[in-house]
Design goal:
seven-stranded mixed beta sheet; globular; mainly beta; single chain; about 5% helix; PEBP-like_sf; YbhB_YbcL/LppC-like; about 30% strand; 1 helix; about 180 residues; disordered N terminus; YbhB/YbcL family Raf kinase inhibitor-like protein; three-stranded antiparallel beta sheet; Phosphatidylethanolamine-binding Protein
């Protein structure tokens, strides 16, 4: 079982930074209002448990996700952040995936779309870090960005999340209330 580093909320802002729709990271993309994306999964519904297969007890990897409502004219890439906040307000980031082609509308189980990049998580390593804490709420947040990100090799988690926050033009979230 891999244990993730706990990141204090002061170091990585609470997931509600963008008007309650979930991004771990600082800043606001702009003063304009953001479009909403619809995020779903064929494996679980919003506000229901995450199937154990997608947790550290399972062996499947990330769950499949689908999204719609991407503003096609302005969107240059899609990003995904999977995170949770514990009772003490510490954020734990389980996956950062960015530079997904803006025409992509779904993510298959245990996969990374061609051309997409994975950022480091709270573990300090890139890739899907399966959730382990049974009683936390896990958020699968999808962001439409107005540019492709150009991360520097070894870029820190906080910088990647800040870049996502600064370039978000639309967002949506699917939440799992706990692990089955």
């Amino acid at each position: 079982m891999r244990c993730a580093l706990r990141v204090p909320a002061a170091a990585v802002a609470a997931a509600a930074t963008l008007a309650g729709c979930g991004i771990v990271g600082g800043g606001s993309p702009t003063e304009r209002s953001l479009d909403q994306l619809s995020v779903t999964s064929p494996s679980f519904r919003d506000q229901t448990p995450l199937p154990a297969d997608y947790s550290c007890a399972g062996k499947v990897g990330n769950p499949p996700l689908r999204w719609s409502g991407v503003p096609q004219k302005e969107t240059r890439s899609i990003a995904l952040v999977v995170d949770a906040n514990d009772e003490q307000g510490a954020a734990e980031v389980h996956w950062v995936l960015f530079n997904i082609d803006p025409l992509t509308t779904e993510l298959a189980q245990n996969s990374v779309p061609r051309g997409a990049q994975q950022g480091v998580t709270s573990t300090g390593r890139p890739g899907y870090s399966a959730p382990c804490r049974r009683d936390e709420t896990y958020r699968f947040s999808v962001y439409a960005l107005d540019k492709k990100l150009d991360p520097k090799r070894g870029e820190r988690l906080r910088q990647t999340l800040d870049d996502i926050a600064q370039h978000t033009i639309a967002r949506g979230r699917l939440s799992a209330t706990h692990i089955e």
